Amino acid sequence: MSFPPVKEQLDLIVSNTVEVISEEELERKLTRSFETQKPLKIKLGADPSRPDLHLGHSVVLRKLRDFQDLGHEATLIIGDFTAMIGDPSGKSKTRPQLSAEEAKQNGQTYFEQASIILDRQKTTICYNSEWLGRMTFDDVIRLSSHYTVARMLERDDFEKRYRLREPISIHEFLYPLAQGMDSVHLRNDIELGGTDQKFNLLVGRDLQREYGIQPQVCITMPLLVGTFGEEKMSKSLGNAICFNDSAEDIYGKTLSIPDDLIETYFTLLLPSPAQSLELFREIIKQNPREAKRALAKEIVSIYHSAELAGKAEDHFDRVFVHKKAPADIEEFTFETASIPLVKLLVELKAVSSKSEARRLISQNAVQIDDTKVDDINFEVVLEKAPKIIKAGKRKFFKVALKK
After folding, report:
1. Shared domain check, 183 and 48
2. Which CATH number fits the domain that encloses residue 286?
3. Confidence class of residue 283 from pLDDT cuts 50, 70 and 90?
4. Residue 42 φ then ψ, to 5°
5. Residues 315 and 343 grouped into a single domain
6. Checking DSSP bridges between strand 190-194 and strand 217-221, what pairing results, if any?
7. d(C-alpha 363, C-alpha 350), whole Å
8. Which residues contact residue 397 at a Cβ distance below 8 angstroms, ignoring those fewer than 6 apart?
């Protein structure tokens, strides 16, 4: 394919980024690519620490898609090997290590989810166990000789933990070196990552230079703030909107974000919004709620469809605006006439454990036919006519005695 002019490429690539190290090198690489009509190799790594992706991951995936649209080669690395080490980025304590089986299982879902944003046909998938798993102890010693402890302690999270006398395991020092070896193996021109990945990206740049490879340009993207409006989006913090959430959940969670995040979400999560950003800013200024509803429908359309986005909006209005039960609630039947509410919530999979069920009940977040229940020992008496159970803000179930 014929590449767009370098200036046009630069404008798209640097949009929404936090830092480009360095922009001059990026321009030189793009110029060489344009003159030779040879695409650049762009790398993005993802450790499968969890089996699902959330909208925070989409920020950097969308930038990788920008490169694909410009005609460059995109490589998505599934860090099945590095996930067994545990990325210490932004952590105040050692991150739990995954087993090889856990890393493999989580990694299997990543490409399918990432393909919602990436061009599946133009994306190369690699697992870094392919090369890191073959390294000998001698290879690791030679690799370690390229970096000093002092350099490692320049990293913010390591420096803070060292100053506070918090434990830092030796294997955590190996993580950025292992990620850097991905760049050495692939000989990529550019690596993408969130701002919390800056140190790791720079290690890859340094190691490429040590191994006689033209160093990569490092591009960092902003970390998406979660739905509570404070910390970065993370499933463990309960503030995430996941790719595989239902249309209703994505819509409802998006409407829950603070008003001051509307423009940020619009800019970072939707494809090429530049043309409509000014118009959207006016809508935010005049009616933030309508702006948020429009944003929610756009996001649902990306991860589901425009049809389901419309249904999700109708569902939200019915349940949260008009305070009615959803039009279509799944019905469950039971053979016993009486069942403890805690047990029932677990069996309905409204919660993942009895302790979570008890907490939900104690918080007045469970209703039976519009009546709140706050007794954790409550027994639900089932009848042939179904009762409606509401758990939390968005989960509804019909339960009845089996006929």
Report:
1. yes
2. 1.10.240.10
3. confident
4. -110, 130
5. no
6. parallel
7. 15
8. 329, 330, 331, 332, 348, 350, 388, 389, 391
